[in-house]
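User: Can you recover a sequence for this backbone? Please restate the input before giving your answer.

Assistant: Of course. Working from this structure:
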């Protein structure tokens, strides 16, 4: 599969450079610019698979740029903004954006959303994910270690699925809680530890090399 090309449009030099360097480090091809006019001049030659667009751009703003970029129906558009108003999110999504992330944002979460969006728009999402001899068939909800079936609860399944979709990425307890239990979940984050422990037992990850603990940060699926 061709390496994904990402267009970054943000007028804040520090964020633009962080995204440029960080995404390149994660294996993406990146073109970064500071305004809509430059972005539109890049698109025809660069043919991005995804665009990360800041709302507050000089001149033509991110909402306007998003509507113009939406002329390509296969382009995944993730909007960034410092504004948390519901009306802004609605305007962005109705204007053509696929997703919305509020500054300051967690870079790993941005990458996770970007990869999920790219799987959809590039039609490369498979129903089966694998790590070593661990496999997950999302169509049948069947999980196996080698040829041995593994029976998981609904939350254990969603937790493993989140890890499988983000191999090598450290996911914090907060990210896991929000993704698996929902953004409105209020409770003890020890719930994550309990489910990680149960999941490790069921997939026979006794040496903790499949689901790794990154002390002080969270968990990741292998490296």
């Amino acid at each position: 599969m061709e390496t994904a090309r990402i267009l970054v449009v943000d007028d804040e030099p520090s964020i633009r450079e962080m995204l440029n360097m960080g995404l390149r480090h994660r294996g993406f091809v990146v073109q970064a610019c500071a305004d809509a006019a430059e972005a539109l001049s890049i698109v025809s030659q660069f043919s991005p698979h995804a665009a990360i667009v800041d709302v507050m751009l000089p001149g033509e703003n991110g909402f306007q740029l998003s509507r113009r970029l939406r002329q390509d129906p296969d382009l995944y558009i993730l909007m960034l903004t410092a504004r948390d108003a519901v009306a802004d999110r609605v305007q962005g999504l109705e204007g053509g954006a696929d997703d919305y992330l509020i500054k300051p944002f967690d870079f790993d979460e941005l990458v996770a959303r970007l990869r999920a969006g790219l799987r959809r728009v590039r039609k490369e999402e498979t129903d089966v994910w694998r790590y070593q001899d661990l496999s997950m068939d999302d169509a049948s909800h069947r999980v196996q270690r080698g040829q041995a079936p593994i029976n998981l609860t609904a939350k254990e399944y969603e937790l493993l699925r989140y890890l499988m979709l983000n191999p090598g990425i450290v996911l914090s307890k907060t990210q896991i809680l929000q993704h698996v239990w929902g953004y409105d979940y209020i409770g003890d984050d020890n719930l994550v530890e309990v489910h990680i422990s149960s999941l490790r037992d069921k997939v026979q990850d006794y040496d903790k090399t499949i689901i790794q603990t990154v002390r002080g940060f969270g968990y990741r699926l292998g490296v």
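That completes the design. Residues 128-221 form a domain with the Arc Repressor Mutant, subunit A fold (CATH 1.10.10.10).
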